[in-house]
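#data-curation
PF: Archiving a pair of folding outputs for the training set. Convention for this channel: one message per protein, sequence first, structure tokens after, nothing in between. First:
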Amino acid sequence: SIGELKKYSFEATIVNEDDLDGDMMIYLKHDYKVSVVRPDKIRMTVRGDVENRDTYFNNGSVSIIDADNENYGEVKVSADIDDALDDLTDKYGIPIPLTQLLYSDMAEDINASDKGYYLGTVLVDETPCYYIAFPGKEWDVQAWIEKGDKPLIRKVAFVDKMEKGQPRSMITVKWNLNPTIDEKIFDFTAPQDAKKAKVLTLEEADKLKMKSETQTDTEAKDKK
């Protein structure tokens, strides 16, 4: 499994359908470059139509910087990659793309249903892959898994059946299982003029929201 690799890197392209004010679906494309050194380091760079940012995981410290305006945030999480990804979602509500390629068990985050179809062997970038599909109430998931002793995800397609228009997402991946990685790339140093943003936990954000709503209610009563 991918979790047994000490280090690896990959490049991925994600194309998402997006609802344009209810008039039509448009396509948003993002390119990712990712390096992983287990158990505690990830460097992810994304450049695309909506997001341009760099993300650093380094032994329990996560730094995320917006490449356009140089605003950045830093949070403390568990050191282990799997636990750190869970912490970001559960504690801070920060989504990290491509987590199904970062967890030690790739199947953990692929949102597949129990019912599945095997649709044969097909070529993805001239590589034979098992083509499998999982229909579900909320998501339809299709995956192309490399045939052989390295069952890597080469392509994944999602259909979000809960959203209007059932938008689709397509992920394609190119792997390097024997990369040369300079571990200095995992060290984050903020640019000189960058602005640090305060990152709230979900609990802190809820408290602020409740406090704000209480103040608004009080002000409304005072005006009566």
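PF: Second:
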Amino acid sequence: MDRNFNPVTDSKIKMLYIESIKQPDKLLYHASSLIKKGCRIAAIKAGSTDSGKRAASSHTGAIASSDSAVEALFRKAGIVRCFSREELTTVASIFTLNEVKGKNCAIITHAGGPAVMLADALSKGHLNVPNLEGPIANELKSKLYPGAAVGNPIDIIGTGTPEHLATVIDYCENKFDEVDLMMVIFGSPGVVNVYDAYEVLHKKMGQCKKPIFPILPSIVTAGPEVRSFIKKGHVNFSDEVTLGTALSRVLNTPTPASTDIQLYGVDVPEVRRIDQLPADGYLNPSQVRRLLGAANIPMVAEFTSDDKDEIIEFARKVKYPVVAKVVGPVHKSDIGGVALNIKYEEHLLFEFERMMRLPEVTSIMVQPMLKGTELFLGAKYEEKFGHVVLCGLGGIFVEVLKDVSYGLSPLSYDEAYSMIRSLRGYPIIKGTRGQKGIDEQQYADIIVRLSTLLRFATEIKEIDINPLLATDRGLFAVDARIRIEKK
């Protein structure tokens, strides 16, 4: 498709059904190339396996799967991922209309129920249905029948005429700057000429720069009118929720990403000294600090020892309260190997002696107790694809809700910001209900640097930074695990 692409004779809409991806880099290269030539690509990837159900030793291992790699690859290439034939054809139909330049939707309707369901679908897909108010909205309301609503959805009511429909479209096109696209729901109310309403739609879709999505649900009772509309070269989205879901997929898919590697702040020669590490398996805390330090990923101050006097001396230096964790076992919390908010020397001594008696414990790590928002960052190596990077909020968001987004290493800053902003919990990151948000730029910095680290350390098969704590003084990796295989 890419090598033989003819912009004059070839369709610029590509629909793919894929069962296996044997050469991910080749797919990434040619899909990105086609999109840069003006094409739009939607694809179903069927037959995915869920390796995340296997026993895993970290959050990353439990969440990431071969399907996560597909998700990350499609996002990097700019391919809109679909999960059914209906969704695939709906996305392709969206591609036939003027390209959408924003996420602010105006819903124009004569029936309240479908408009409410459409607004719900758009909201779930992180699209906006902005409230329309003020002098311009009042002016529009004066031109409609009593009982009409203009707040958005704009309801011209069942007796609204084709002329009213034309007026509303003109206001959305020319006067409401906060509107990026229009979605028109018009069935067969039984009191107006449907042919005339669809003729208004036909003309306005040719005249308006803002895209208009026709939702003509009465494909039985207004069958001839709908067929006449389609024969004029249009598509019809007969179900408003299917359209809202598909449009969300389109608008939340990034453009093809740059494949340049961001080297700033990463000590590549130091990273490559990973080949000097002796054995496969999990790195010890000092090795983890060395690698993350080479990528300029800040870590909270810590000290590890099996000598209680040295532990006490470090705690005095960083000041209480502190956190104590066992070194050795992979799952610290499961065996009672983590003690938080230790405020006194006697308490620390008690925890030291208790933890050193736990099975497989070799030493104790102590860190200052920091307060902030818990974030999550991890990566897993997938054969052929490379490293899939995951980010999200920490704690319950990753453990229970699995609210994470995926990217394929190496990542650009645009990709990192897109990953952060696609999270359901993004309002918490941004700051909500009077709570201060986190430093989004530093979070993106750390994501990008981690992806660069992974590009030069393919021996890393799994990395888990949880939590990455966002404090008033910046972001710090509090706990990190790295598993390597040098085969």
